[in-house]
């Protein structure tokens, strides 16, 4: 019954948004309410779930999204993105730009949370698209594949870190095995798969890309790179200090505060206001107008993400995720495959990779005491499953669709297919390591 209700809800979303041309936020609300009633919630519980879903989802992403959009807008308007794009093209050439962006996304994605990384690299991708007349999806998707894989597979990202703790896995081994799996997953889902997507016509939001400036008006290369990548640099320094300092060090609370994505972005915006704004001759009101325009650009996206969060919360409040997971537990599948499958189905039903991973972990934990499965590989199997087929109920789907200004069909063909390839390759990599590690004495990787 639960699966039927969720299936009908997804089909109704598709019908309203794709064929009915209903605003996506309104469509989510129109679907969420009857789904809640169909799953047995009272009217009060439905309203509470909708409000909680909206609040929790926007509370966790609004600050990062808005500040990231502000930074991205200033990076674009100041000419910093143009300077970075020109430097990269001159260094590596347009023929290798996919691989250049993929590697850049991989480096950025290790310390950077997904939403921050996404908003940070959008102006860079769009500047390359407009300046060198390159296909947006073709060059942008490999970079986003890097960010997505690292978000789902590797600590210090929230879900993998929590899974390492829950399964008593080894952080070093999990990270090392995750890297071995992540590299082929990114290559297959990024540069190789996107060869089939060159025909997709995408006109990204032009408001995020400034008109090309003469070279004499561009900020310096060092200023451009440092100001644009300041969130990455701050996180690298903070995480490095957290790794070497004892947990009870007097600096620990300050470092934890600075490691928060919202605080990282706020600090970066404040620095960029000077380095890419007033220091280049802009007045403070001019910089603030850029920021106001950035907020207007992302407001519709925030509403859509909030709508997806409302639907997710109704499904959680009704117990749908637990019922789905319990129904799968008695299948007799190998533990690693079962962990991947449970996370994947919950991901498809609820949209959130983090919720899918943590829910699947709760189901699999009782079985681990009687299972020969490597806990490090279980973390990665669940992480891979949590990325399966992003679609209408996932905020990441709408971020990609709206920023690249794609149709639903092309978003499914590009973004959703990329996420699915990453998930399946991740599972295959886990199973290959599960076969190979006993042959090597399980001594591969750091201790």
TrEMBL record:
InterPro entries: Glcn_transporter (IPR003474). Belongs to the GntP permease family. Coiled coil: none annotated. Pfam families: GntP_permease. It is found in: Cell membrane. The keyword Chloroplast does not apply. It comes from the Bacteria. It is a multi-pass membrane protein. This is Gluconate transporter. It comes from Hymenobacter cavernae.
């Amino acid at each position: 019954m639960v699966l039927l209700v969720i299936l009908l809800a997804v089909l109704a979303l598709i019908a309203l948004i794709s064929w009915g041309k209903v605003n996506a936020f309104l469509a989510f609300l129109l679907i969420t309410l009857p789904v809640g009633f169909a799953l047995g919630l009272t009217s009060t519980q439905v309203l509470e779930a909708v409000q909680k879903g909206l609040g929790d989802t926007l509370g966790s992403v609004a600050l990062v999204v808005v500040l990231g959009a502000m930074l991205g807008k200033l990076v674009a308007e100041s000419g910093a993105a143009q300077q970075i794009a020109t430097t990269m093209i001159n260094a590596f050439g347009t023929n290798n730009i996919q691989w250049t962006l993929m590697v850049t996304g991989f480096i950025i994605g290790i310390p950077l949370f997904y939403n921050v990384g996404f908003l940070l690299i959008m102006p860079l991708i769009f500047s390359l698209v407009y300046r060198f007349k390159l296909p947006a999806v073709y060059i942008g998707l490999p970079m986003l594949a890097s960010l997505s894989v690292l978000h789902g597979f590797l600590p210090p990202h929230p879900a993998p870190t929590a899974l390492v703790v829950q399964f008593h896995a080894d952080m070093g081994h999990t990270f090392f095995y995750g890297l071995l799996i992540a590299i082929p997953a990114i290559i297959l889902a990024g540069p190789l798969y996107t060869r089939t997507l060159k025909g997709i016509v995408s006109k990204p939001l032009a408001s995020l890309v400034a008109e090309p400036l003469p070279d004499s008006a561009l900020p310096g290369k060092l200023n451009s790179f440092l100001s644009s990548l300041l969130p990455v640099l701050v996180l690298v320094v903070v995480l490095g200090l957290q790794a070497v300092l004892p947990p009870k060090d007097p600096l620990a609370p300050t470092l934890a505060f600075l490691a928060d994505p919202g605080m990282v972005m706020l600090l970066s915006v404040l620095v960029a206001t000077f380095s890419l704004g007033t220091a280049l001759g802009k007045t403070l009101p001019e910089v603030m107008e850029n920021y106001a325009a950035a907020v207007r650009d992302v407001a519709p996206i925030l509403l859509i993400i909030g709508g997806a969060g409302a639907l997710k919360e109704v499904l959680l409040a009704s117990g749908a995720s637990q019922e789905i997971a319990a129904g799968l537990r008695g299948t007799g599948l190998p533990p690693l495959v079962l962990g991947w499958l449970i996370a994947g189905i919950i991901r498809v039903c609820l949209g959130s990779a983090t919720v899918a991973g943590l829910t699947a972990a709760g189901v699999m934990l009782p079985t681990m005491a009687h299972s020969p499965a490597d806990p490090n590989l279980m973390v990665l199997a669940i992480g891979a499953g949590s990325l399966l087929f992003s679609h209408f109920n996932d905020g990441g789907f709408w971020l990609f669709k709206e920023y690249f200004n794609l149709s639903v069909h092309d978003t499914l063909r590009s973004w959703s297919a990329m996420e699915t390839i990453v998930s399946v390759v991740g599972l295959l990599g886990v199973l290959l390591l599960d076969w190979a590690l006993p042959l090597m004495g399980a001594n591969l990787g750091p201790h």
